[in-house]
């Protein structure tokens, strides 16, 4: 039976068990229409492909994975994991520090300065937080590599996964594309999402520590205090105990005000909105 997949899962091997081919279409990341990634496992003929843009339907035959038993996996975080102070240790490891230097050239600003010193409001913005998490996640890999036994741990990884933005980090770690190309994509993604968020005038927060029923109750309580345009709802079921809520700004403010009484913790996911209200096309994604 065939299933549909996306960038959310990228299977890889760091032991040269996979043959990979990455193809970029239509030039630079600033104007790409499609990105295709193809991976094949010579022993069993397994292949996966992912694409963005004109060709979004991707199929993978689950039966081809029946005899494949992954042993160790890296799961990379998505937007909302950012915190002022992240990346400080990178300065002590040359390979990690080099990633931030490369990022500065691509992004046009000092990313490490914002990661380590903030301000929080700037780091939380979608256009900053997405490249910050991508670069810091891969810098963390370099920190691990520099520690005793770290390279052995990295070599043992045969599956990489990512939560939303972390999908790009997983693909870069797996070798599907270079660090630089991945960052160019993330830069474009963050800018497009920021534009869409600004047009929608919405907001999003990640709720931590509650089950889905409690999060729904929190949303219902917040919705009693706002008009229809500002209502909120669960946008992403990230994992048990972690759910993203999005909607109008006033609705999210009501969620934040009531979260403590529900004994919930929250992290900010800037102003991007993932529910179908006030949707506007953003020019940079054309």
Automatic annotation (TrEMBL):
Organism of this sequence: Citrus sinensis
Pfam families: Acyl_transf_1 (PF00698)
Residues annotated as domain Malonyl-CoA:ACP transacylase (MAT): 75-283
Protein name (database record): Malonyl-CoA:ACP transacylase (MAT) domain-containing protein
Gene Ontology molecular function: any one: transferase activity
């Amino acid at each position: 039976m065939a299933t549909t997949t996306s960038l959310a899962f990228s299977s890889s091997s760091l032991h040269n068990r996979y043959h990979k081919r990455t193809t970029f279409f239509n030039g630079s990341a600033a104007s790409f229409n499609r990105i295709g990634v193809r991976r094949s496992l010579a022993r069993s003929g397994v292949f996966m492909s992912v694409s963005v843009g004109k060709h979004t339907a991707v199929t993978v035959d689950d039966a081809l994975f029946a005899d494949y038993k992954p042993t160790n996996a890296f799961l990379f975080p998505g937007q909302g994991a950012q915190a002022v102070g992240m990346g400080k240790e990178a300065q002590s490891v040359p390979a990690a520090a080099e990633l931030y230097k490369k990022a500065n050239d691509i992004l046009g600003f000092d990313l490490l300065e914002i990661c380590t010193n903030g301000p929080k409001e700037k780091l939380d913005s979608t256009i900053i937080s997405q490249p910050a998490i991508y670069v810091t996640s891969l810098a963390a890999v370099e920190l691990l590599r520099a520690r005793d036994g770290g390279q052995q741990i990295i070599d043992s990884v045969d599956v990489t996964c990512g939560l939303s933005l972390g999908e790009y980090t997983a693909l870069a770690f797996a070798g599907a594309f270079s660090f630089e190309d991945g960052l160019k994509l993330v830069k474009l993604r963050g800018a497009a999402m920021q534009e869409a968020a600004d047009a929608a005038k919405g907001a999003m927060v990640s709720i931590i520590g509650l089950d889905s029923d409690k999060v729904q109750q929190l949303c219902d309580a917040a919705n009693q205090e706002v008009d229809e345009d500002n209502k909120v709802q669960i946008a992403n079921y990230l994992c048990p105990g972690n759910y993203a809520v999005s909607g109008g700004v006033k609705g999210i403010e009501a969620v934040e005000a009531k979260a403590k009484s529900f004994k919930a913790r929250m992290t900010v996911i800037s102003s991007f909105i993932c529910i179908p209200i006030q949707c506007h096309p953003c020019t940079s994604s054309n």
